[in-house]
Amino acid sequence: MKPPDRAIDTLLDLDGSVFEQEGGFWMKVEARRIDPTEFVPHGIRYSLTLHNRHGKRVLGYDNAHAVKPPGKFKFAGQRLPYDHKHRSASDKGVPYTFASAQGLLEDFFAEVDKVVAAAIQGD
Predict the structure, then answer these.
(1) Coil, strand, or helix at residue 100?
(2) In a domain? residue 25
(3) Is 122 part of a structural domain of the chain?
(4) The organism sits in which domain of life (predicted)?
(5) Residue pair 46/31 in contact by the 8 Å Cβ criterion
(6) Disulfide check for 43: which of 12, 21, 36, 73 has CB 3.0–4.6 Å away?
(7) SS3 content of the chain, % helix, strand, coil (to 5)
(8) pLDDT number for residue 47
(9) Which residues are bridge partners to 85 per DSSP?
């Protein structure tokens, strides 16, 4: 049996939080418990976003909608993943494997650090 994901409480506690970052960037965390479904088996609806100084989302991890995996494959009758990330403002999303709330937070914060560092170095 899989041990409980204790970081879910941390993720839920962060709901509504906004964190300022270097270079005018800021992060927003939204997370709430829902009844588990086929598409959201972990029972958490979440949106973790990074915005630039103009308020434009430049990175996001969420499970608000299904996304088609990249490639030219047909998906008729297949379950499309809901957990995904947006790597830019125009990215429609690529699948993200949600293993735990701890992993989600670690992955998001690590990618935020990379995006912010790259933007600051490019200034």
Answers:
(1) coil
(2) yes
(3) no
(4) Bacteria
(5) yes
(6) 36
(7) 25, 25, 50
(8) 96
(9) 61, 94
Q: What is the pLDDT of residues 43-84, one digit of tens each?
A: 999 999 999 999 999 999 999 888 776 665 554 445 567 899
Is residue 24 situated within a structural domain? yes
Q: Are 66 and 82 in contact (CB under 8 A)?
A: yes
Length of the chain equals: 123
The answer to the question of residue 42 being in a domain is: yes
Number of domains, the chain: 1
pLDDT surpassing 60 at residue 9: yes
The predicted model scores a pTM of: 0.85
- Beta bridge pairs of residue 50: 27, 59
Strand-by-strand arrangement of the 84-86 sheet: 18-20, 26-33, 44-51, 57-62, 84-86, 94-95
Check residue 87 and report its DSSP letter.
Answer: S
**Res 90: pLDDT:** 87
Contacts of 20 (CB under 8 A, 6+ apart): 26
d(CA 108, CA 98): 11
